[in-house]
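Example 3.2
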Amino acid sequence: VVQTIPPGKRLLVEVKCEAGCVEAFAADLALVADRPDAVTIIGFELPIMAACKQRYPQTAVYLVAEQTLADEQADWEPSIDDLIESAVRAKLDGLDMSNTLGVDSCTVGKIHKADLDCCIWTVNSVEDGERLRKAGVDSITTDDPLLFLDPDHANR
């Protein structure tokens, strides 16, 4: 698959395995060694993402994080500060955050100030996409790319 990635595009690979699988990517990543931006590794498990970054330092690695609210009076958990600290400590390249109202321009600003990319999943409404664009996110994941590529699609 990695050989089919068009120039200027990237493939996100979500890792859902134990730390022992980190070495399994070596042969595939070697195929795009001249294009380190062609692949980004993402995953929920910080130790595995840290191991990926240590093994493949030229490849972007993002921690996937889901924030929740215990109730309307609570703060988002885990906190953005804790997520940033974890990503920076592990020398990761970004955070791939769940699509919540907690992702605003202040949150994105903190992430960018830490020299991390800010990606959001899963964005399936034009309204959320516009809110996140205004907040300054770097990219989104969607189940319906036509919502954002074809203005007429959103009106159907």
